[in-house]
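Narrative summary of target 7.
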Amino acid sequence: MSCNQPCKESSGKLWGGRFSGETDPVMEKFNSSINVDKRMWEEDIKGSVAYAEGLGKINILTVVEVAQITDGLKKVSEEWRSGKFEIKLADEDIHTANERRLKELIGTVAGKLHTGRSRNDQVATDTRLWLYKEIQVIKSFMISFIDVFLQRSSNEIDILMPGYTHMQRAQPIRWSHWLLSHAWAFKEDTDRLMELAPRVSMLPLGSGAIAGNPLGIDREFLAKTVGFNGVTKNSLHGTSGRDFIAEFLFWSSLVMTHLSKLAEDLIIYNTKEFQFVTLSDAYSTGSSLMPQKKNPDSLELIRGKAGRIFGNFSGFMMTLKGLPSTYNKDLQEDKEPLFDTVDTLKGVLQVAAGTLSTLTIHKDKCLDALNPDMLSTDVAYYLVRKGVPFREAHGLAGSVVQLAEKKGVVMNELTVKDLITVSPLFGEDAKKIWDYSCSVDQYVSTGGTSKAAVIKQIQELKMWIEMQ
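Modeled conformation, tokenized:
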């Protein structure tokens, strides 16, 4: 049969047999995802190679046909890798593009590759493969970032600074202790990421469109071939489930919350009012009007991009909300927020690591910011060690604060004689209360800010990194 108009088969659409009319060009563009999902070309080919081998295993393909298809897919892969792959107008998505090119290379036997397979289980497989690979990259960035905290904590362990609550100076702590507070958050984030990874590593391929595979394809073999932990246990859930993306987007939002918190702290510490740290020129910019300014743009962008990733997560949740079960085309909207989040997060982690590793800490400025008033709790602890119940000791410490205010002096200028007017339990050893080093080193319990406790934290985190 000859056609004056393009025949259905020549349209290139995997679903074209049902339709006789032409697709509106606007709809054609609206429906296409190739410009987004083409970045999954490698995963699509990897899944197709495994599927061809699976079809050979159940005698749907001959040994020769399996070899033809896998050799052809290798050539397609080489074209993508070299940048020579040509995307054509009819290539709706990465699956269509790869299968079309495979047919051009090896002929009609390429059509057998799609036996029992659907774009529904293909795209779910490609996305999982792509994300699983990216999780390993992100994990390496997380570990490198945490290592920066550990290096600085080890090298700068003797630097003391104010600890803050409600943005008010609270108690003396070690700079290293502050650094490690963020390191532990990122360590827990990394643990969560690796808890998520096995849930991503579940293969939907072999689920077909929704009902499964009628040819007895060995899905466990497919999973092993692509390097996954197992297979999805229900074909409807396998093709439509995007919880793994939602979970990753939530995880990314949580990481960005921690990154934004770190950035905010450093922005404050970098101000002229604090001067605890100075950012490297490599991670700062200037003002177009005010020559004296050095702006912490790296940190501000980290803080700003948190909102972008939060938006990706919340937007995707709205896409999922209210969908009926099984596959719906709405799910095509999963990849843009996923890809953008991965790209943004990888960039942020590298910039954050660079910013933290190159900043300068000003030991004297940190020490100058300490004030004897911050040792008020130490006054109470001194009395507790003398046998006074804490509530009573707390009240007596408040009286010491009042006495210093009444005399118009800072607390460490009070004499032992002055202190005895508050409680006869004060003695000459009370002078040690005003030693900031003694103050921080009393917090020896696990997780405290004493030097011994901080060293223990560093050691534990180093051991954790070695186990990764």
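The mean pLDDT is 93.
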